[in-house]
Amino acid sequence: MTTLTPLHVLMLGAGSGIAQATARLYAAEGAVIGLAGRNAERLDAIAHDLTARGASRVEIFEIDFVTAEPAQALADMVAKLGGGDHFILAYGVLGDQAAAERDLTAAQTILDVNFRSAAGWALAAANLLEQQGHGSLVVLGSVAGDRGRRSNYVYGAAKAGLAVLVQGIDHRFRGRGPRAVIVKPGPTDTAMTAGMAKGGPLWATPEAVAAVVRKAADRGGPVVYAPARWWLIMTIIRAIPAAIFNKMNF
Question: Which residues are catalytically annotated?
Answer without folding.
Answer: 155
